[in-house]
Amino acid sequence: MARDFSGRGIGRHLLEAAAAEARSAGCTRLRLDCWAGGDGALISYYESCGFTRSGTLLVGSWPGQLLTRSVAGGAVDHFAQ
Predict the structure, then answer these.
(1) CATH number of the domain where residue 28 is located
(2) Residue 36 lies in a domain
(3) Helices marked H in 1-81 — which ranges?
(4) Rounded average pLDDT per 10-residue block, the chain, 81 residues
(5) Which residues make Cβ contacts (< 8 Å) with residue 72, sequence separation at least 6?
């Protein structure tokens, strides 16, 4: 999302829409991959939205973080560990 729109709740709204879509598809969890570099602000943001760290990845020199979040009410957990 463009930084011009930061702080307006748009990201949280999009994550909630994704959770609703996942629930309607019968899923129980959302998974996202994000950049893990810098000061960790992006990971902290996703954690504030209910995601928890579930793994790491490295693509070339790009550090990544895997995060998951329950969407409660679904029947299929496609990302169970």
Answers:
(1) 3.40.630.30
(2) yes
(3) 10-24, 41-48
(4) 69 91 93 93 94 95 95 54 42
(5) 23, 28
